[in-house]
Amino acid sequence: MQASDRFNINSQLEHLQAKYVGTGHADLSRFEWAVNIQRDSYASYIGHYPMLAYFAIAENESIGRERYNFMQKMLLPCGLPPEREDD
Amino acid sequence: MADLDPEIAKTQEERRKMEAELSLTSVTFDRDLYGGNDRDSYATSIAPNDEEDSNLDANGSLVAQRLASYTAPKSILNDLARAHVEDDDGGFKPRQTIAEREGDYRNRRLNRVLSPDRVDPFAMGEKTPDPSVRTYNDHMRETAVQREREETMRLIAKKKKEAEEAAKELKDSGVAASSKRRNRWDHAEEDGGGVAKKAKASDSDWDVADSAPGIGKWDATPGRAGDATPSVGRRGRNRWDETPTPGRVTDSDATPGGVTPGATPSGVTWDATPRGSATPTPKRQRSRWDETPATMGSATPGGMTPNAAYTPGVTPFGAVDMATPTPSQLNLRGAMTPEQYNLARWEKDIEERNRPLSDEELDAMFPTEGYKVLDPPASYVPVRTPARKAVGTPTPMTTPGYVMPEEHRGQQFDVPQELPDGLPFMKPEDYQYFAALLNEENEEELSPDEQKERKIMKLLLKVKNGTPAQRKTALRQLTDKARELGAGPLFNKILPLLMQPTLEDQERHLLVKVIDRILYKLDELVRPFVHKILVVIEPLLIDEDYYARVEGREIISNLSKAAGLATMIAAMRPDIDNMDEYVRNTTARAFSVVASALGIPALLPFLKAVCQSKKSWQARHTGIKIVQQIAILIGCAVLPHLRSLVEIIEHGLSDENQKVRTITALSLAALAEASAPYGIESFDSVLKPLWKGIRSHRGKVLAAFLKAIGFIIPLMDAIYASYYTKEVMVILIREFQSPDEEMKKIVLKVVKQCVSTEGVEPDYIRSDILPEFFRHFWVRRMALEKRNYKQLVETTVEIANKVGVADIVNKIVAEGLKDESEPYRRMVMETIDKVITNLGASDIDSRLEELLIDGMLYAFQEQTTDDTNVMLNGFGAVVNGLGQRVKPYLPQICGTIKWRLNNKSAKVRQQAADLISRIAVVMKQCGEEQLMGHLGVVLYEYLGEEYPEVLGSILGALKAIVNVIGMTKMTPPIKDLLPRLTPILKNRHEKVQENCIDLVGRIADRGAEFVPAREWMRICFELLEMLKAHKKGIRRATVNTFGYIAKAIGPQDVLATLLNNLKVQERQNRVCTTVAIAIVAETCSPFTVLPALMNEYRVPELNVQNGVLKSLSFLFEYIGEMGKDYIYAVTPLLEDALMDRDLVHRQTAASAVKHMALGVAGLGCEDALVHLLNFIWPNIFETSPHVINAVMEAIEGMRVALGAAVILNYCLQGLFHPARKVREVYWKIYNSLYIGAQDTLVAAYPVLEDEQNNVYSRPELTMFL
């Protein structure tokens, strides 16, 4: 960040953005971003009932089960995080 | 020589005779001049400053010499009054120290002592404390001893006084009663009458001081340093006595009567400056006059606190300070404040000019023959001020001229010394705290403790005086290293600074901030310092500045969370029954903050114990006051604990001490006020004592009880309320006639509260309350004092709400509006105004209506000084209330208005014009259009008015008339009126401008066709100037008027004017012009404006091009979705602008694109928008804040118009770019995209390939039915 940036609205904007889970930053890894994407996706499926119904029909499961599955998948959507190489 | 004696005797005799002749018995011309009054009523001496300050002490606050009547201490009243003084220095306040701003009472904080650290019992575990450290027990014991000492002193003094008074009485009874000595009772009476301003003849300072064996304010603060001498017995002193002549030192203590006041004839305030201690008389206790302000906080006379020998943070130079600087030495020394310098310098000068003539000089002046040196009278006592002696007469017979100063290398010449390693400059008063920093010793040679101390001082100095950057880093360092530096060293440096008498608001704020920060870090380590911190923070709780109070509360609340309840109680318990009322007051407030921080239940057992303390009434008083403060502080949150709080204090109602009874009633009032409208059941137990109490008490206790009742009654059910109201009403009606101002206010308030409750019947009010109420309160005297006035009006309005308009208005109108006292008439008018605004005028019968109008006209015409517009508002309210019924009176009213429009006084003319604008609507209702037309013509004739305020009002009146009768019927006709307004538009006065532009705008809107186009063009030119007006309302009205005019005469001409205006230099003007262009485009459709505007972009001039872009930006903002028809037309222009080298071009174009995108979202212009986005996107790496803001906003606009997926695709290329700078920008865009449209992104995220054991793919999206 530049010196001029420090006191203007832009710095506040970034601060504001950082308060939301799911926003990213320059050092975000592929894994972390993917996790966010997955969770957002599952949240969206659960949030839109027609989507949920569609998946339920496709998988031949009850809607409730489907919702439960999605929620469970949100825990570790991409598996365990990979070892950091640069540590 | 011998023959001179009889001659002198004869002269003296003659003079005496002449004086006798001039006396009152004979007729002299004086009598004609003074109207034959008793000359005793004239002042024989005039106080040097003001007539008012006869009793002021050196600090400018009132030294109470009379029995305190039932009002707040004068010092507080003065404080309050001062808070309302408007600053007429244009908002730039001179720097002022807190101590200067505050009154005497608040400055008593400086008298408090930072007590030594106390041991923290929690930290020790089970160990017995070391005898050398101070424990809670020690402290309690000391307080007890101190209290006992005060008590004994008081007793001794009392006895002495009694003996003395007995002696005096014996003597007085012999003396003829003719001597008109006034005692304090006279004072009180005079005050009560509310008239006494000027002191009577015998009321010179000396007399009062002599005859009032006053209980001064000194008594209230017996714990103070200055009060080591028993105070009650001391005669009321005034500042004249305070010159510490050696003779007086013994006098004042042993035989108070022996003082000869006035012994220092030239003594004005500088006598009171600290100087006396130049002659240290070891036996004598130092009075507070002797102290230099700088040492007040820390130096306590030995006797007061036994171990004051160790007061941490005592200024290192005690000895230097004590020897008060004599005026002749003016070298820069740490302890002197700048004020002291000036004083000393000035004093030296005066002393030298006014030194008495010596015998030799007199001999040289007078002839040797014919004069004789007389012996001084026996009563003459020469001035023996030591300091004055010290000045002496340096070299007789020389006037102080220029003297070449001695050169002295070490001298500092008032120039602050340069500080090592970039420390901020030091003010003279800082030297005593930070002097150590000036020693250029080697840091390594110091012990670790000293180094630490040095470090703290450096950081503190940076915080206190440094630049913002320095301050910030220093603050951070202090915070981070708080535990390392240690609580002791930190607080020992910070707290004395806060006690500095020359502290300023900003400095205090910063230091308090430091404390706040380190409190967090130190946590339980603060325990030994809790009391010290409280001593400096408590005064903030009664500061006049709201933010200081909030800050104080926050610190105390944090402190109590860090230290814990037990420590807080242990620290504050001894102060609860401190002898000084100030200490108790602040402690009570601090306790209420602790209660709100740690919860009331935690504090309840302690409060209960304190409120039932048997040892001292002070403790009970403070305990109950804590409850009051809790109620005030936390408001309705007391409800859950209401019952227990009431139970804790209820016994105070029957306490033996009057003050305790009073505060109990006040606390109950506060509790009831806080819990309203709930919680009446909690007050059940106090109802009986309260209602019984009002029958047995008198004076201020009664007032407090009534106040409590006033707040409790509104909580009751209707039936009870009516019963209890009837009970209390007897007393209230009796107290209607109380002469006490405070009682009057409380009675009025209680009546208001009682009357407004549901259960009280109008009939009861009418029959039982009203007659007495009007007889005692609706008198002229009530109108003279502002607070009485307000309260009376409020109460009367409340009664009117209950009993209706007719009763009240009947009573007060009858005589009131024609009363000879103007304030009274004003009070009547204000009441009528409020009553009729609330309730309408339908209850008013024709007879009353006649009276009312007649009275109003009289009052309106007779008013002389009305800055508040009461009469005007009242008139307006009544006329509007009566509506059509006012028709018969309109000719009369208009006659008055016309007459007054012609008045010599500007104020009267202004009011008349204002009145027209208020009653115009009613005149229309009454069908008096002809009359209005006539008024219009009259007003038109007065447009030459030279006073801008009046002219503004006249324009306002014209506007009101035009508004109601319309353009066509207006006389004078619009075509005559408008040309007359054009030159007025040039007027720079805001009121004129605003009213004029409103009127012109109105005409442009509704009646543009009555005026030729050329006239409108002329107005357009004038309007351009008005775009610069400071007031936003004027600028907005101007811009709107442009729109109306453009609509009326077509946009071409107006637009040409506006586009030309883009070339001017002034930015403000250009900005307003661009707005005006956009407005014209909006009102006349964009296609009439766009071609000319876009053509103007071809002018190769920065300002013009930017102006055009800005107009486009506003234009697209205003026209919204109409923009879809024009987007393709302006795209080439925007392309060009977005590729321009000039940053501002790109910025303005970006904001135009933003508005455009937002306007056309969902209207099928995506192709053009994507095209523009391609021009916007390369700008994302701009660093200039405005440009990058505009670009980001444009992208946001695109997100709305094009959908998040499109923008995400633009983003993806850079999210994992190898260059960090690029990634940062892209992630910023991604984040705002994400926050704006998270859900939409789900469908658009890229497909990620799985890696070894991580699943990144989203198989669900591939499902297909």
UniProtKB/TrEMBL annotation, chain A:
Transmembrane segments: none annotated. Belongs to the SF3B5 family. GO terms for biological process: mRNA splicing, via spliceosome. One of its GO terms (cellular component) is U2 snRNP. This is Splicing factor subunit. It comes from Arabis nemorensis.
From TrEMBL, chain B:
It is found in: Nucleus. Residues 837-1077 form the TOG domain. Its main location: nucleus. Pfam families: PPP2R1A-like_HEAT, SF3b1. Residues 29-41 have a biased composition (Basic and acidic residues). One of its GO terms (biological process) is spliceosomal complex assembly. Residues 29-57, 164-306 are annotated as: Disordered. Coiled coil: none annotated. The keyword S-adenosyl-L-methionine does not apply. Keywords: mRNA processing, mRNA splicing, Nucleus, Repeat, Spliceosome. One of its GO terms (molecular function) is mRNA binding. GO terms for cellular component: spliceosomal complex. The keyword Aminoacyl-tRNA synthetase does not apply. It comes from the Eukaryota. InterPro entries: ARM-like, ARM-type_fold, PP2A/SF3B1-like_HEAT, SF3b_su1, SF3b_su1-like, TOG. Belongs to the SF3B1 family. This is Uncharacterized protein LOC108827433. It comes from Raphanus sativus (Radish).
